[in-house]
Amino acid sequence: EIVLTQSPATLSLSPGERATLSCRASQSVSSYLAWYQQKPGQAPRLLIYDASNRATGIPARFSGSGSGTDFTLTISSLEPEDFAVYYCQQRSNWPPSFTFGPGTKVDIK
Amino acid sequence: QVQLVESGGGVVQPGRSLRLSCAASGFTFSNYGIHWVRQAPGKGLEWVAIISYDGSDKNYAASVRGRFTIYRDNSKNTVYLQMNSLRAEDTAVYYCAKDLFSAAPGPFDYWGQGTLVTVSS
Predict the structure, then answer these.
(1) Are strands B115-119 and B10-12 parallel, antiparallel or unpaired?
(2) What residue in B sits closest to A50 (Cα-Cα)?
(3) What pLDDT was estimated at residue A40?
(4) What is the distance between the alpha carbons of residues B56 and B53, in angstroms, rounded to a whole number?
């Protein structure tokens, strides 16, 4: 089973700052890596799929990069609504199964 | 607009059964795979199960395989999760989620609001 590790566990930043979140896979996942945002009491929201494609309606300040085992989610300039928990997710091919990382909490400094 | 609405959660004793439902609307339900994902209180996300668009393919997380069954009724636009032999560690909010693409599993572009399952004596 592929294990995803996210770092840091918590990122304390101020609005307007740049956020860089890391996700590392225990073995190559090619580009089958997605990022989700979750706010308290809400369902997760898809931000990025296939490592670098923004989902519909996601602002351009969110970008994803990477392939193989190392991936990055970048928020170029934090807005107040971006303070949340971010999860990465990978897909194993067949039979299809999915793993989430433990999450990175972005909180207000 | 796309909507997924879960129901069926509640408090159940260890060893008992519960069935969750996920009612979908706003898209061509029979074209998309559907997943169940759970989140224990204060914890992260755990994928639970997938069912293909026509119900012919299913897969489960190791933690629930043999106890949980996913199935769907495309005439009712509904996916179900039958949960048997429930354990305390199954306590979580259960979300259903829709595949982004009709041709491949994952990622999940729409999620329901979740239904809470509490396993306790």
Answers:
(1) parallel
(2) B107
(3) 96
(4) 8
Give the span between the Cα atoms of A5 and A26, in whole angstroms: 8
Give residues with Cβ within 8 angstroms of A78, minimum separation 6. Answer: A13, A14, A15, A16, A17, A18, A19, A106
Please return the burial class of A7, using the count of CB atoms within 10 Å of its CB with bins 0-12, 13-18 and 19+: middle
Best residue of B37, B108, B115 to probe chain A, by most A CBs closer than 10 Å = B108
Q: Are B95 and B37 in contact (CB under 8 A)?
A: yes
Residues of B in contact with A38 (CB under 8 A): 45
Q: What percent of chain B has pLDDT over 70?
A: 100
Nearest CA distance, A16 vs chain B (angstrom): 27
Alpha carbon distance B104, B50 (integer Å)? 12
pLDDT single digits (tens) B60-119: 999 999 999 999 999 999 999 999 999 999 999 999 999 999 988 989 999 999 999 999
Q: Do A43 and B95 touch (CB under 8 A)?
A: yes
Hey, is the C-beta of B9 within 8 angstroms of any chain A C-beta?
no
* Residues A24-35 pLDDT 10s: 999 999 999 999
